[in-house]
Amino acid sequence: MSTIFNGNRPKIGISSWRRDLPTFLGEKTDLFTLDPDYAKSVWLAGGIPVLIPQTSIDLIQDYVDLLDGLIVSGGGDISPLVYGEVDTGQSYDVNVETDRFEIALIHEAAKRNLPTLGICRGLQLLQVAFGGKMLQDLHEKFPNHPKTKGSAEEILNQRHVVDFSEDCMFAQIYRSTHHIVNTIHHQCVQSVGKGFRPVGWSEDGIIEAVESETSWFALGVQWHPEKMKSPQEQELFRYFIQSIDHLTKKKV
């Protein structure tokens, strides 16, 4: 893991979303993509964003060698096969190869104590990687939770409330145990993975934030802070990168 000295920006790997999109090469062009808001948030917080494409699992150790921190980003649903469930047909944009690659990346990050932040799908992968379970359609259990329907603007403008444990990092980051977030998901974590604890919940009881209970600095959120324009949301990225700086200096 590279070292942060003399104001050098830490290198923050961000997982990419592999999907088929129309280009001049055809209607379904296989691409690694990333919402630029992730890169912008990392840059504004003091880091250098580094896109991580899904390649060979054999390269994961080399990826981690390059990085000071890792963000597991949003994207398609996780295949139920990965967390030992029957696919009921309610999961979308699944890619088992990507799931397995990113889970292997998470395991290597944990092994190396590489600071890690999971966002939406990233939170879910952090839990599945360590035995957590998912609800393939959260609305079967939480029918009143906002649905991801309507125009892009309508979906991005939906909000709901999350309440944090008083002793968690998020209460410190947002200086409150009560926070308003966006709603861009139709699945959720049913049970957390080994080594994590839930620390934030929606009003109807969905797990919305988790943090590691071990020496590994890892946390995750179900919402998309990079898509919220409030300056307060930038505090999560700033806290993450400042923590990397602090943890690195402790090792020197």
TrEMBL record:
Domain of life where this protein originates: Bacteria
InterPro entries the record matches: Class_I_gatase-like, Peptidase_C26, PuuD-like
One Pfam family recorded for the sequence: Peptidase_C26
Annotated organism of origin: Neobacillus massiliamazoniensis
Lineage summary: Bacteria, Bacillati, Bacillota, Bacilli, Bacillales
Record PROSITE patterns: GATASE_TYPE_1
GO BP annotations listed: polyamine catabolic process
GO molecular function: gamma-glutamyl-gamma-aminobutyrate hydrolase activity
Protein's name in the database: Peptidase C26
Gene Ontology terms: cellular component: cytosol
